[in-house]
Amino acid sequence: MLSTIFLIVVLLYIIGFYYLITTKNLIRILIALEVLTKGLTLTLIYVGQLTGQMATAQSMVITLIIIEVVILAVAAGIIVNIFNHTDSLDVREIFRKNK
Amino acid sequence: MNNTVLYILLGLLVFSALLTAMIKNTLKAVIALAVASVILTVIMFLMGAPLAAVFELSVAAGLITAIFVSTISLTGSTTKSDQTENNKKRLSRYIYLPIIIVIVAGIILITKPGLDFTSIAMATEDTVQSTIWQVRNLDIAGQIMVILAGVFGVVILFKERSKN
User: Fold this and answer.
1) Pair A46, A9: CB distance under 8 Å
2) Chain B residues touching A73 at Cβ < 8 A
3) pLDDT tens digits for range B56-105
4) A1 close to B (CB below 8 A)
5) Do residues B28 and B80 touch, judged by C-beta distance below 8 A?
6) Are A58 and B41 in contact (CB under 8 A)?
7) Nearest to A54 by CA among B53, B24, B119, B138
8) B76 backbone dihedrals φ, ψ, rounded to 5°
9) CA-based Rg of chain A, rounded to a whole angstrom?
10) B112: left (phi > 0), else alpha (psi -120 to 50), else beta?
11) Tell me, what's the pLDDT at B111?
């Protein structure tokens, strides 16, 4: 069972990284980071189960979720500001307009 | 029985993550992400982490989805290049993803790498409450500072916006 969870964790990382690399939309880049965070959350719980320290793993997951939501809130604010200034969410267009 | 449910949920988690990456509409991608969060919540509950699961459900599936939806409504769900992008071109961009996943899954299933944590395994009977408040109590201070930093960050961002 545990090796299956390891497989799923690796697949989640691959999906997140591939999505992060291929997308050009700023909101979608944030969504890709979220997918990566899902993989990280599952990793922490998985390692907590392997080591028998589920209490520590849970406290770290709670910390991770809090940091995740704060980063997301600030990043969302920055994205809204970028959109108001450049009228675009496409990374290439934003670079072109700022040149 | 329990393991079978867990396997199904793990498969659904990967499927919803794939949907998140491959769906064209950003709003639908966010909904797929929320579904992934809910599935992860059930997985965490089954793996014996109920407190973290509740946090995941309320914050990751609830609050984060609300932030994404409000951001999309403030900016518009698609960029101009997204609208003009050909479906065929988009499909060709993401066609490699399932192939890479199948290859990596095959390699992992054949080689079966195991993570050996037995040397550092120290099964303790601490509860989550005692861990948070006694063992890792400095984390709480760090979390409060992170939340404050986030609040001030958002306030400053929207203050600048209203000035402009």
Assistant:
1) yes
2) 67, 150, 153-154
3) 999 888 899 999 999 999 887 555 555 556 666 777 777 777 888 888 88
4) yes
5) no
6) no
7) B53
8) 95, 135
9) 17
10) left
11) 77
Structural domains of chain A sorted by starting position, each given as residue range(s) with its CATH number in brackets: 2-98 (1.10.287.3510)
Residue B163 and residue B32: Cα distance in Å, rounded?
36
Which 8-state DSSP code applies to residue B24? Answer: S
Nearest by CB: B143 against A25, A37, A63? A63
B107 or A41, greater pLDDT: A41
Q: What percent of chain B lies above the pLDDT cut of 70?
A: 79
Query: pLDDT at position B126, please?
Result: 67
Contacts of A65 (CB under 8 A, 6+ apart): A41, B52, B55, B56, B59, B60
Taking contacts as CB-CB distances below 8 angstroms, the residues of chain A near B115 are 6, 47, 50
Give Cα B88 to chain centroid, integer Å.
28
- Give chain B positions within 8 Å (CB) of A93: 79-81
Of A7, A68, A79, nearest to B71 by CB-CB distance is A79
- The two three-digit tokens of residue A10, written as one number: 């690796």
Q: What distance in Å separates residue B70's CA from the closest CA in chain A?
A: 9
Type of residue numbered B16: S
pLDDT tens track for B99-122: 888 888 888 777 776 655 555 555
Q: What is the DSSP letter of B125?
A: -
pTM for the whole thing?
0.84
Show which of residues 5-44 on chain A sit within 8 Å of chain B, judged by CB atoms.
Answer: 5-8, 10-12, 14-16, 18-19, 22, 24-25, 27-28, 30-32, 34-35, 37-38, 41-42
